[in-house]
Amino acid sequence: MQIFRRLKPIAAISFDLDDTLYDNRPVIMAAELAQLMYLARHYPVTKAWGRDEWRHHKLRVLAHHPVLAHDPTALRLLTLHSGLLYFGLSEADATTAAGAVMDEFIRARSHFRVPESSLQLLAKLGQKYPLIGLTNGNVDPERIGLGDRLVFVLAAGSGVRMKPVDDLFRMGCNRLGIASEQLLHVGDSHSADVVGALKAGCQAVLLNPAHGGVEPGPLASPLPHLQIQRLDALLALL
User: Domain of 40?
Assistant: First the structure.
């Protein structure tokens, strides 16, 4: 553990989910593969597009609807809908199909369980602190085993902007009934988690490398309060 700023009294701890409590890279790859397989099975005309074509189309959609940068679910849904229109489906059929494909993606997106080491860590920390989740993603926390470990999880979307904007931090502190400086946020992204937490007036812990990573990345400014290479270093807070 590296200490860069003195910690103030902590009333609660928030966690980023993806790549902090688990390695999200294989999860996303599996979910995108499940989406492609579902499309190919039910809408064979879409076989002309692979992962790269859908990603490029997503970027085109985002360029026309930049507000969706803060809503990954709505962005994916519109990407699917407009892509299916391109392949000749009617408006009604594209709407129905996009919803079905999105359901398949979300199912696959949450078809795993948080590692036992993370669950045990949360159980220990939860004996002293209220624990919450603040995520830019769209995983289902109940299905991956976090339902009884986190008091609640807040996610970006539906008007709630992604970290590093302060929406999630502000909402979390308000719901907990604590001042922002009493929240310690733990995450793997300097740009989203550290910058976001500090801008919101919270305290920040950077997990570096991210969950599943090997080599830590270089430090950037502003510095977090703490940098850890393993989540179990947080047990020092007990």
Answer: 26-109
The CATH code of the domain that includes 69 is 1.20.120.1600
**3 Cβ contact partners less than 8 Å away, ≥ 6 residues apart:** 225, 226
Task: Determine contact, residues 70/128, Cβ cutoff 8 Å.
Answer: no
First to last CA, the chain: 14
- What positions carry a catalytic annotation? 16
Are 229 and 179 members of one domain?
yes
Pairing of strands 226-228, 203-207: parallel
> pLDDT for 57-109, tens place per residue?
999 999 999 999 999 999 999 999 999 999 999 999 999 999 999 999 999 99
Residues 6+ apart with CB under 8 A from 69: 62, 75, 162
Predicted model pTM: 0.94
Supply angle C-alpha 101, 104, 106, rounded to 5.
110
Question: What is the phi/psi pair of residue 14, to 5°?
Answer: -110, 150
